[in-house]
Amino acid sequence: MTTTAPSPSNPAEAPDNGGDAPGPLLRAWRAILTRRELLLVILLVVVLVWMTALSYGGYLTGPYDPDYLATSLVDAVPLAMLALAELLVIVSGRGGIDLSIGSIVSLTGMVFGIVHGLWGWPVAAAILLAVLVGGLLGAVNGVLIAWLGFPALITTLATYYAYRSLALVINAQKPISTPNIQSLYSLTGAVEIPVIGHDIPNVPLGVFTFLVPTLVVVWLLLQRTTYGRRLFAIGTNDVAATWSGVPVARTRLLAYVLAGVLAGVVAVYVTGQFASARPDAGTSGNGLALPAITIAVLGGVAITGGIGRVSGVLLAAVLITWLDAGILLMFEGNDGTQFQLLALGAVLVFCALLNSFTTRRYGGTR
Q1: pTM of the shown model
Q2: Residue 301 is assigned to a structural domain of this protein
Q3: Per the structure, how many domains does the chain have?
Q4: 1 to each of 4, 13, how far by Cα in Å?
């Protein structure tokens, strides 16, 4: 019988133990590094145990308990949805990224606030317009990047400033908080889950009305449609995809359009969350773009394109949300927000290094 030696061009097939089969510890280590969801679950447990221990020890300014964690999920909804938007554009390859996603939220939120709060449009029509405007703003990015060949980083940085300035001047830098807008606060209220709700804390309604449908749609789009296969193909090797007959430019353009559509939906959610259409809703403080990019990369989306999973993005969004929630309780005043930025930067560096190491050593995550 003839056996085939592992190919040196594929490190994942090479033995880790001097020619012997890898032992249990090495197999476990490889599983943690290559299966991003497993790593995220471990990190999530570490954060929960660590913060809970600090809470019981009296080192936090408030209780880090299930009620607090459930309440903090209200912030996970927009971050996870925008991270899914970044998943689409980063997977498309060629340095795909969208720095303008936060300013699209701001601008579409103001459009929504004007037509619904000031002009009295029905909420359904106003939501539809917000989604269309978000898609149009994303299409501007897509045309510049996919059709004209501009670098995604420079293009979306430029449109970030353009959309942000339009959001500020469209209503003279004033938020819109009419009774129509204030009534949307119920979209983000906490609700009791049927059957088991009396045993667990109430969960923000937006988890079920905004986040879960978005997760399902994006997962189906990527895993069950021709477009999803094309998107991964152009992100992996757009030259090969071109020779295979894949419309590369159109596929990449649509990724930015879909990212804009998701930003439009997030704008509606954020408007309800603050009971106000704010011109800086997606850009104030830490902003929404950089946390969304961090969550996407932490969730296993390869910055080089062609690799990414919805489940990893969801777990990363919960991890970042609960880590930020704990950091806020560790410091008094505004210091917590500043340390959130420090943690965000550290996490981004960590996951970038991890992605690079995993790709070189094992051929990427699964």
Answers
A1: 0.89
A2: yes
A3: 1
A4: 10, 20
Beta bridge partners of 47: none
Query: Which amino acid, one-letter code, is at 330?
Result: M
Tens digits of pLDDT across the chain (366 residues): 444 444 444 444 444 444 455 678 787 777 777 788 888 999 999 999 999 999 999 999 999 999 999 999 999 999 999 999 999 999 999 999 999 999 999 999 999 999 999 999 999 999 999 999 999 999 999 999 999 999 999 999 999 999 999 999 999 999 999 999 999 998 888 888 876 767 788 899 999 999 999 999 999 999 999 999 999 999 999 999 999 999 999 999 999 999 999 999 999 999 999 999 999 999 987 789 999 999 999 998 988 899 999 999 999 999 999 999 999 999 877 788 888 888 888 888 887 787 777 767 766 666
CA–CA distance, 107 with 266 (Å, rounded to integer): 11
Residue 16 lies in a domain: no
* Domain assignment present for 28: no
Helix crossing, 310-330 with 66-91: angle to 10°? 140
Beta bridge partners of 190: 204
Question: b/e for 311-322, b at 16 or more Cβ within 10 A?
Answer: ebbbbbbbbbbb
Look at residues 346, 356, 308 and name the one whose alpha carbon lies nearest to residue 33. Answer: 356
Q: Is residue 253 part of a domain?
A: yes
Domain around 228: 37-55+62-362
Q: What is the CATH number of the domain that holds 88?
A: 1.10.3470
